[in-house]
């Protein structure tokens, strides 16, 4: 079946550090891939997406590349800020069912 | 810009009590969803409604019922609450079903069942 696996958190970084949050997936067909972010006390919001292999999604300094050969969609940012502290969810949309499947979420804490 | 509004934000129930979570969106979206969020398990789909007048089960529908009252509103009902239903519940909507994958979420409703 379809599934998404993210690295366990929390991830704690100092301001201006480089961020990587790993995400791998299992899916049949050709899924679309997404990163959602949840700030404290809020609902989730779409951060970026990629709909086919080798696509790169980007937004707010975050990037992720759809790697079909390694079934991965790792989230990266070159220099994190305290305001990036949040929970990050990787998700896929199955091309077969159309349903959105979320990973378990990774908490990022950025310290000044 | 209200977006997706959920009520109540917090609720404490005793086992066996019933309650309804309300959700309304003002974006004229066709599709609406209810998810639950539990530690270490991400978000799991409870029920969804692809359009007004239709509802379908998601991954974890047992113990829940839903009503798509009109295009704006989608409610989730717990008929006899159980401690296993302690969770944070999120309502979401999208304009074109799951075709684009972009969902718009409410702020969540934290439910505790004692």
Concise structural overview:
The complex is a heterodimer of chains A (112) and B (114). By secondary structure, chain A is mostly beta strands.
Question: Can you give keywords for this protein?
Answer:
heterodimer, A: 112 residues, mainly beta, six-stranded mixed β-sheet, four-stranded antiparallel β-sheet, 12 strands, 0% helix, globular, B: 114 residues, seven-stranded mixed β-sheet, 11 strands
Helices and strands in order, then pairings?
The complex is a heterodimer of chains A (112) and B (114).
Chain A: E1 3-6, E2 11-14, E3 19-21, E4 23-26, E5 32-38, E6 44-50, E7 56-59, E8 62-65, E9 75-77, E10 86-93, E11 100-102, E12 106-111
Parallel strand pairs in A: 2-12
Antiparallel strand pairs in A: 1-4, 3-9, 5-6, 5-10, 7-8, 8-9, 10-11, 10-12
Chain B: E1 4-7, E2 10-13, E3 19-25, E4 31-37, E5 43-49, E6 56-57, E7 64-68, E8 74-78, E9 87-98, E10 104-105, E11 109-113
Parallel strand pairs in B: 2-11
Antiparallel strand pairs in B: 1-3, 3-8, 4-5, 4-9, 5-6, 7-8, 9-10, 9-11
Large-scale geometry of chain A: globular
Can you give the mean pLDDT of chain A?
A: 93
Helix content of chain A: under 10%
| Number of H/I helices of chain B | 0
Architecture overview:
The complex is a heterodimer of chains A (112) and B (114). Chain A is mainly beta and 112 residues long. Chain A has no helices and 12 strands. Chain A has strands spanning 3-6, 11-14, 19-21, 23-26, 32-38, 44-50, 56-59, 62-65, 75-77, 86-93, 100-102, 106-111. In chain A, the strands form 3 sheets. In chain A, strands 2, 5, 6, 10, 11 and 12 form a 6-stranded mixed β-sheet that branches. In chain A, strands 3-9-8-7 form a 4-stranded antiparallel β-sheet, with no helix packed on it. The N and C termini of chain A lie far apart (41 Å). Chain B is mainly β and 114 residues long. Helix content of chain B is 0%, strand content 53%. In chain B, strands 2, 4, 5, 6, 9, 10 and 11 form a 7-stranded mixed β-sheet that branches. In chain B, a hairpin with a 5-residue loop joins strand 4 and strand 5 (43-49). The termini of chain B are far apart. The A-B interface holds A 4, 32, 34, 41-46, 49, 89, 91, 93, 98-100, 102-105 and B 4, 40-45, 58, 90, 92, 97-99, 101-108.
């Amino acid at each position: 079946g379809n599934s998404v696996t993210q690295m366990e958190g929390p991830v704690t970084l100092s301001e201006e550090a480089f961020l990587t949050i790993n995400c791998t997936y299992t899916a049949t067909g050709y899924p679309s891939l997404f990163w959602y972010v949840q700030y404290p006390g809020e609902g989730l919001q779409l951060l970026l997406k990629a709909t086919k292999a080798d696509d790169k999604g980007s937004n707010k300094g975050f990037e992720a590349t759809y790697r079909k050969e390694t079934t991965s969609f790792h989230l990266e940012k070159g220099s994190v800020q305290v305001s990036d502290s949040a929970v990050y969810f990787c998700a896929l949309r199955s091309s077969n069912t159309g349903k959105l499947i979320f990973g378990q979420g990774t908490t990022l804490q950025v310290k000044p | 810009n209200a977006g997706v509004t959920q009520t109540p934000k917090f609720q404490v129930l005793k086992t066996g009590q019933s309650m309804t979570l309300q959700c309304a969106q003002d974006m004229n979206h066709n599709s609406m969803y209810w998810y639950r969020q539990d530690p270490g398990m991400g978000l799991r789909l409870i029920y969804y409604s692809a359009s007004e007048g239709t509802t379908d089960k998601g991954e974890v529908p047992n113990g829940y019922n839903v009503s798509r009252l009109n295009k704006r509103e989608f409610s989730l009902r717990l008929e006899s609450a159980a401690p296993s239903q302690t969770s944070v519940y999120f309502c979401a909507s999208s304009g074109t079903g799951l075709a684009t994958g972009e969902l718009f979420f409410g702020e969540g409703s934290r439910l505790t069942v004692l």
